[in-house]
Amino acid sequence: SPIDMRSTKLRSYPKEVLEDGRSIRVGPATWSYDWALVNASLGWSARGSWEVRLLQPFAQTTRMTFLDRDFTLQAFHFTSPSENRIEGEGFDMEVQHVLQSADQKVLVVSVMLRVGLVPDNPYIAQFWSSFPRYSPGVQAVDKVITNPFYGAIPEDRSFYVFKGSLTHPPCTNEVTWVVFEE
């Protein structure tokens, strides 16, 4: 990781909203959450990117099942420019949702963004101005935000899947990446 994805590897499945109203299934993936609003901590990752960490109990109740393995959303961070590419094209920004299973396997769900879309994106607009300015030792800011699985995942859930690694230390291998086409 990172890689350049080609449309020959794109997977598209019909989207199915499940009866509970808080779960969406697309092919081998099911996104689910218990609360539409979550408590989160807005701050900076060790590598200097914007990071949102879900606070408990929300980190355990925002889930994704992928290929019959359950993962919980721990955090998501923004990288600029994007680390991955689609059809040779890089993007202004990439949001990487980091999930972990009970047996410590890692899944990253990635959404590409164009900077012009950030101010018009109601999900990001709710917290973007609340990020603290970057400086060594800056304290994170706690905030109630819309659950990422409710507001941040694209309506079109066509995606690419690949095995790779984390793009930052400890560069964990055997990471499953799900990268949305749009």
Automatic annotation (TrEMBL):
Domain Alpha-carbonic anhydrase: 1-182
Any one GO molecular function term: carbonate dehydratase activity
Reactions performed catalytically: hydrogencarbonate + H(+) = CO2 + H2O
Residues annotated as transmembrane: none
Tagged with keyword Lyase: yes
InterPro entries: Alpha_CA_prokaryot-like, CA_dom, CA_dom_sf, Carbonic_anhydrase_a-class
This enzyme's EC code(s): 4.2.1.1
Keyword terms: Lyase, Metal-binding, Zinc
Record keyword Zinc present: yes
Family to which this protein belongs: Belongs to the alpha-carbonic anhydrase family.
Entries under PANTHER family matching the protein: CARBONIC ANHYDRASE (PTHR18952:SF265)
Name of the protein described by the UniProt record: carbonic anhydrase
Phylogenetic placement of the source organism: Eukaryota, Sar, Alveolata, Dinophyceae, Gonyaulacales
